[in-house]
Structure formats: structure tokens, C-alpha cells
Design brief:
Strand order of the largest sheet: 4-3-2-1-7-6-5
GO cellular component, one term: nucleus
Domain PP4R3 EVH1-like: 5-101
Family: Belongs to the SMEK family.
Largest sheet: 7 strands, antiparallel
Biased composition (Low complexity): 711-725
Shape: elongated
InterPro entries: ARM-type_fold (IPR016024), EVH1_PP4R3 (IPR055236), P4R3-like_central_dom (IPR006887), PH-like_dom_sf (IPR011993), PP4R3-like (IPR051137)
Structural class: alpha+beta
Radius of gyration: 42 Å
Strand content: 5-15%
């Protein structure tokens, strides 16, 4: 029994004036030699570690609030609170504190907090004036009372004394009695004075006064006083709203009367703070900090009481998932769970952990799977908010549930697929819900929050699951709007639309942009899985169809997707891009954009600048070979000339390498020539030279014919024209296999100078070079010339 009585939570007030939970333990008051005085000690119930060691100082002001709270300040900006499980334990420690300070335990505050400046300012006040003297509580003295309350707000010491006076004489209830009299008499002047008085009492910021003012028999009169603001021509009707408009809905009857009272009180006090009182910025900072704390601890208590009532929550989830439950009833149940989760945000991490585990054990995720698929928009919106609380708290918990779902069920009923379909089918023109759901999906598939320490296989297993069962649902709208058969059909019919392929509907374009944003995230974080998916589905080609969209933001999303792929500098991706000629739609978009200097222009230029700076050789060769003629006119940036320069440098390096092999083969002939030139005189040189050339010719001619025969055989297998011209490996131009994916024709630019690899190691003869030049000229005349524009 003593353990329960002494069980407490330790709170500290942070810089944002929010209470942080420091842990749960058991409190005791003992003499500590090191601190040389009686001290409060709190040891954690989990491991016995010391959570709090605080000496009871004779000069510290301790306050008792709500029968189970003791609050005090140990430094200028360090407030502490002990929240007791039982009132008896709070009273016991309070008596000990009052005993050390020599105070009466009947009071809720041990002494007046006075700082040095206040002592100096009010040192002329006589010692006998312990309390502010209040005028008699009469109608004729209301103006005098209002002036007194207003005048003390600037002085901390006088605020404390006024608060004590109001408490000791039961003054609050007398004032509220006068309010009822003034309202019956329609005494507007008296009502205006009472407004000033009640507002001033609230700004005294004292929990003991709040306990009286917010009790069941007083709170509605307090709200009534606050209706008669002198600045308003007509009084507000706050009481009418609270009693008639605002209805307390019990989705499941609450049998605990204390819990019901606490819920009512919290709602009304929150209404006073949020609706009735002016914004805090108008007044001194933290003027209503105690009111905020009052609401905070009330919410913590409500969540704890509901969480402990297992029968209540079990019944909630049973009705939520019951097919026989009426739609209106289910809507109320979902809204209750949503508000319950919102209240849980006041809990500290360890308590919130226990809260969500309780919900998980009760079946919150299977219930969400059902309600998120319903037609009722309000139910789906509330279910989405609940799902967001769960994902933000523990993505791993949601992932674990998803992977445990029976694999034999239809893919459509999987929780993640339900979420994806809700995102795709969002009826909001601005797609507010879809944006929220996309953020939640990104959290779920983010490898950064997949903890390897707890489950080393979570990342692999979940991503494999997602790409197998869910990715096709996510990409379905994208593939449907960029389908090949749709493109061909539209082109055959000669549609007069601006763009028959890309969606002109703004909402559809927004949805595709969201999907592309998620896919771009996958490219960055899921290297293996997304690469396989892109290759198998030819996804990049389909995405680049959207470069033709009239919505520039969608074209930019498609370009960003390609930029992320190229940014990986993965040769698998590079070969895929080259083989599919996937730069063509990007360059077409750049040329169609013309001279407009906009984001699309800058983003496209940046893509090619990246390729140039990073010297991605395969892509540089592909771009220059196929598109340079169309791009060379763009001179306001040096990007494309730089690409050409990189290309030429690489070609020169390859030529030098080939020439080095050629020189090695002819080094013997050059040595013989030098020998004859040194030994023979002018008369003998012609005969010897002629003899040497005849011998060399016979020898070289045999080698030449043998090499030519081998080259011809090799060329016949590769080229029907029998030409053995091979371009350097890095500059090979690849013709796309599937040109039907684009509405423009692919035009091949003039080929770069070629190197005759069949001649490597042979002596060059002028006649042979002439024949080669003639063959090249004939081939160029036969091949079509490439036009600068890439459209037909």
C-alpha cells in the first residue's frame, strides 16, 4: 500500500513551457548529509536509479495543485513537479515540506515567491499587510474590486497576496453570486466590471484558484462573466454553445463518473483558453502557463484512465470492426479513436509507447484496414489521421503487421494497398489527403528508419514484399496514362488535342507528380529493387512521355526522375538509357522550350552539365553521336561544346592508342631504310632502293592480301555492305529498338570519322587511302542526312 501511495511521476518544464516526463518512481523525504538538510528523493521503479534529489529549502515556494500535484521552482528557469498516484501520498509529502518550512499544511502554497527587485520596490510595505485587503463583495464595490485586481497584475508579490486573499475568504463564489444577480437585473455596468475581475483572476495564474473556478458548480458562471466584454456591443453566447451546440457523445457509455467529470472540465477549460481569452502574445509571456499545465495534466489523466479500462476499449474496437455497426455509429467510434490518439500526444515517449502498444494489442491496424476502405469520406479522413499517428510513432510496428498479413488474401485488401488506393482516389481537387498519405508511404519505405539492430532482415524482407505486392498498385496510374497502345491509337486517329498522351487534367497531373516523387525517392534509397523494376517495366521510357505534358511541374518531375537515375552513375542504367534512346524526349522538350529561360530549361541544362562534369563517357559519346547537330546551336551555355570537347579528347586518346600499335608493326621497315641511307652513296642508292622496294612489296603484298581476306570475312558477318569500318567502342551509336514510344522520329547524325581496324599493322599505301576515301564518300551519299530538329 505504501508503495502505491508514494508512487510518483517526475516532470520538468522545458523551454517551450511544456512538461517533460523524467520517469516514474517512489518518493521519500530523508536527511541528506551532502546537501545538509531534509531532501526529496525519487528512485526509479525500473532500476532504482536516482531520478530526483532536491533539498527542501526554507525559501522555496511549493504549491499543491489538484490534490495530487506538488510544483516548485529550483532556479529561475527550472520548474519541477511531482504527480502522485494517490492523494494520500501527496498529502503526506506536503505535510513534510510544510513541517520543514514551518508552514500550515492547510494552505496550498508555502510562501510568497519574492525576487530581489520586488523586495526593494515594496520594502516600504508594512509587515502587517500579509494579505491584500479586499473590499466587501457587494454590487456597489464591483468597480473598486475590478481596479484592485487590474492594478496587481504588474507585481508578482501583490499577485500572490491577492490570490491568497481570494482563497481564504471564499471570495470567488461570492463574486459569481453577484454575477447571477447582475444578469437577472441586466446590470451591464456591473457585468462589465465582473468581466474585468474574472479575467484578472485568471491572469493571476494560480492553480488553487483554477480548482475553484473550474469546478462543476462554478465554471459556467465563469464563462458567463467572460461573455460581457466591454469592447463588444452585444455579449457573446459562449454558454449557449457549450450547453446546447456542443454535444458530449459517448460512443460507449462511460461508467466512471470521475472520468466523465474530467472530460467535461478539460473541454470547457480548453474552450476558455482557445476561444474566450485573447491570444497570449497580447499579454506578458507565460501569463497563463499554469492554465496550460492544468489542461496538460488533465489530458494525461484522461488517457491513463481510459487506457486502464480494458473493457471500454475492447468494446470500442469490437463495434468498430463489426459489419453490423451502423455507419453513423462507426463514424463516431473512429472520431473517438482519433481524438484519443490526439490526447496521447501529451504523453511522454515511454508512456506513449505503452499507449500505442495497447492499441496494437486491441487490433487498431486490422480495424484501420477495414475503415480506410469504406466509402464514407469523414470516416476515411479520420482513419487517415489515426494511421498517421501510428506511422509517425512506430513505422516498424506497421511494417511488421503488413508482412504478417495472410499472403493468400487478395492484394487489394493489404493495408498498404488500401492506403495507396485512397491516395490515388482522393477526391480533393488539391489532393490534400493524397499528399499526407504519400508522406506516410515514404516513411514506411524509408530504409533509414528500418533498424538493423532489432531485425537485420527487416529492410530486405519488407522491400521485397513491397515491390512484389504493392509497387504495381502505386505505378498503375502512371502506366495507364503513358500506355503504348494509347499513343499509337491517338497518333493513328490524328487527334487534335494539345497532347493526346499526357493528362491535361490538373488533378491527374498532380497525382502523377506525387507518384513520381515517391519513385524518385525509391531510386535514391532502393538501389537493387527499383533498378530491377525499372528495367523490367521499361519505366523510364514511360515516365519520359510526361515530358510532353502541358503542365510544366509534371515535366519537371519526369526530368527529376531521370536526373536521379543518371546521378547514380550506374553503367547498367546508362546502357539502358542508350539502348532505348531515352535522351530523345528530353532534348525534344529542350528544343520545344525554345529561347524561354525557365526552370525546365535550367534543369535540362543542369542534367547535361552533370554528365559533362562527371565525364560519363558512354553517355557523352551517345549524346554527341546522335544529337550534337541539334544542340550545337545552343551557345548561351558552354555545356554542349564542353560535351563535344570531352568526346574529341576521348576519341584522340583512342586514336593514339591505335597509332601506337601501328608504329610497333612498322618499326622494322624504318630501321632498314635508315641503314641503307647511311651506307650507300648517291649513285648506288637508286638501284638499292628499287631492289629493297621490290622485295618489300612482294612480302607486304602477301601480308596485305591475307589481312584483307580476313577482314572481308569478318565484315560480311557484321555488315551486309561488306564494309569493315568499326567506330571506337565509346562512340558507338545505338539505334533504339522501340521507336514507337515517342511521337518523333529518330534521326541519325553523320557518323564520326572511323578507324579501319583491318589495316592495323600494315604498311599504308597512297592508293589504298584513296580507295578508302572514295568508299566513305559513297557511304555518306547513301546515308540520310540528319536534320537539326528531332521532330518529323
Amino acid at each position: 500500500m505504501s508503495d502505491t501511495r508514494r508512487r510518483v511521476k517526475v516532470y520538468t518544464l522545458n523551454e517551450d513551457r511544456q512538461w517533460d516526463d523524467r520517469g516514474t518512481g517512489h518518493v521519500s523525504s530523508t536527511f541528506v548529509e551532502r546537501l545538509k538538510g531534509i531532501s526529496l528523493l525519487v528512485r526509479a521503479e525500473s532500476d532504482g536509479s536516482l531520478l530526483l534529489e532536491s533539498k527542501i529549502s526554507p525559501n522555496t515556494a511549493y504549491q499543491k495543485q489538484q490534490d495530487t500535484l506538488i510544483v516548485w521552482s529550483e532556479a529561475d528557469n527550472y520548474d519541477l513537479a511531482l504527480s502522485f498516484q494517490e492523494k494520500a501520498g501527496c498529502d503526506e509529502i506536503w505535510e513534510k515540506i510544510c513541517q520543514v518550512q514551518g508552514k500550515d499544511p492547510a494552505l496550498d502554497i508555502t510562501q510568497d515567491p519574492i525576487d530581489e527587485s520586488e523586495e526593494e520596490r515594496f520594502e516600504e510595505i508594512p509587515e502587517t499587510s500579509h494579505l491584500v485587503e479586499l473590499p466587501p463583495c457587494e454590487l456597489s464595490r464591483l468597480e473598486e474590486i475590478a481596479d484592485l485586481v487590474t492594478s496587481v497584475l504588474s507585481s508578482p508579490i501583490r499577485r500572490e497576496k491577492l490570490a491568497l486573499a481570494l482563497m481564504s475568504e471564499g471570495y470567488i463564489k461570492k463574486l459569481l453570486g453577484l454575477f447571477r444577480v447582475c444578469e437577472d437585473l441586466d446590470n451591464r455596468e456591473g457585468l462589465h466590471h465582473l468581466y474585468e475581475i474574472v479575467r484578472g483572476v485568471l491572469f493571476l495564474n494560480k492553480a488553487a484558484l483554477f480548482e475553484v473556478m473550474f469546478s462543476d458548480d462554478c465554471i459556467m458562471d465563469v464563462v458567463g462573466c467572460l461573455e460581457y466584454d466591454p469592447a463588444l456591443v452585444q455579449p457573446k453566447r459562449h454558454r449557449e454553445f457549450l450547453t446546447k451546440t456542443a454535444k458530449f457523445k459517448e460512443v460507449i457509455p462511460i461508467t466512471d463518473s470521475e472520468l466523465r467529470q474530467k472530460i467535461h472540465q478539460t473541454y470547457r477549460v480548453q474552450y476558455i483558453q482557445d476561444i474566450i481569452l485573447p491570444t497570449p502574445s497580447v499579454f506578458e509571456e507565460n501569463f497563463l502557463s499554469t492554465l496550460t499545465s492544468f489542461i496538460f495534466f488533465n489530458k494525461v489523466e484522461i488517457v491513463s484512465m481510459l487506457q486502464e479500462d480494458e473493457k471500454f476499449l475492447t468494446e470500442v474496437f469490437a463495434q468498430l470492426t463489426d459489419e453490423a455497426t451502423e455507419d453513423s455509429k462507426r463514424r463516431e467510434l473512429v472520431n473517438f479513436v482519433k481524438e484519443f490518439c490526439a490526447f496521447s500526444q501529451t504523453l511522454q515517449p515511454q508512456n506513449r509507447d505503452a499507449f500505442f502498444k495497447t492499441l496494437a494489442n486491441l487490433g487498431i491496424l486490422p480495424a484501420l484496414e477495414i475503415v480506410m476502405g469504406m466509402d464514407d469520406l469523414q470516416v476515411r479522413a479520420a482513419a487517415t489521421d489515426i494511421f498517421s499517428y501510428l506511422v509517425e510513432f512506430s513505422p516498424s510496428m506497421v511494417r511488421e503487421f503488413v508482412m504478417q498479413e495472410p499472403q493468400q488474401t487478395d492484394d487489394d485488401v493489404l493495408l498498404i494497398n488500401v492506403v495507396i488506393k485512397q491516395m490515388i482516389c482522393d477526391s480533393d481537387p488539391e489532393l490534400g489527403g493524397a499528399v499526407q498519405l504519400m508522406g506516410l508511404l515514404r516513411t514506411l519505405i524509408d530504409p533509414e528508419n528500418m533498424l538493423a539492430s532489432t531485425n537485420k532482415t527487416e529492410k530486405t524482407e519488407f522491400l521485397s514484399f513491397f515491390y512484389k505486392y504493392c509497387m504495381h498498385v502505386l505505378t498503375a496510374p502512371l502506366l495507364a496514362n503513358t500506355a503504348h497502345d494509347k499513343i499509337s491509337k491517338d497518333l493513328q486517329e490524328g487527334s487534335t488535342k494539345i497532347n493526346p498522351v499526357c493528362p491535361d487534367n490538373f488533378q491527374t497531373a498532380q497525382l502523377l507528380a506525387l507518384i513520381l516523387e515517391l519513385l524518385t525517392f525509391c531510386v535514391e534509397h532502393h538501389t537493387y529493387h527499383i533498378k530491377t523494376y525499372i528495367m523490367n517495366k521499361d519505366l523510364l521510357r514511360r515516365v519520359l512521355v510526361l515530358m510532353n505534358s502541358k503542365h510544366t511541374f509534371l515535366a519537371l518531375c519526369a526530368l527529376r526522375f531521370m536526373r536521379r537515375i543518371i546521378g547514380l552513375k550506374d553503367e547498367y542504367y546508362n546502357r539502358y538509357i542508350i539502348k532505348g534512346n531515352l535522351f530523345e524526349p528530353v532534348i525534344n522538350a529542350l528544343l520545344d522550350n525554345g529561347t524561354r529561360y525557365n526552370l525546365l530549361n535550367s534543369a535540362t541544362i543542369e542534367l547535361f552539365e552533370f554528365i559533362k562534369v562527371e565525364d560519363v563517357k558512354s553517355l557523352i559519346a551517345h549524346i554527341v553521336d546522335n544529337f550534337y547537330k541539334a544542340l550545337e546551336s545552343i551557345e548561351y551555355v558552354q555545356t554542349f561544346k564542353g560535351l563535344k570537347g570531352r568526346y574529341e579528347q576521348e576519341k584522340d586518346r583512342q586514336s593514339q592508342r591505335l597509332n601506337r600499335y601501328r608504329r610497333d608493326a612498322r618499326s622494322m621497315d624504318e630501321d632498314e631504310e635508315l641503314l641503307f641511307n647511311d651506307d650507300d652513296d648517291d649513285e648506288e642508292s637508286e638501284a638499292v632502293e628499287k631492289s629493297r622496294m621490290e622485295e618489300d612489296f612482294a612480302d607486304s603484298y602477301g601480308k596485305y592480301m591475307e589481312a584483307k581476306k580476313g577482314a572481308a570475312n569478318g565484315a560480311n558477318g557484321a555488315n551486309n555492305n561488306g564494309k569493315a569500318a568499326v567506330s571506337p567502342p565509346a562512340s558507338q551509336a545505338v539505334t533504339p529498338n522501340n521507336s514507337s514510344a515517342s511521337s518523333v522520329k529518330t534521326v541519325v547524325l553523320p557518323a564520326t570519322p572511323v578507324v579501319k581496324t583491318a589495316m592495323v599493322g600494315l604498311v599504308d599505301y597512297p592508293d589504298d587511302e584513296d580507295e578508302e576515301e572514295e568508299e566513305e564518300e559513297e557511304e555518306e551519299e547513301q546515308s540520310p542526312r540528319k536534320r537539326p530538329r528531332l521532330s518529323s
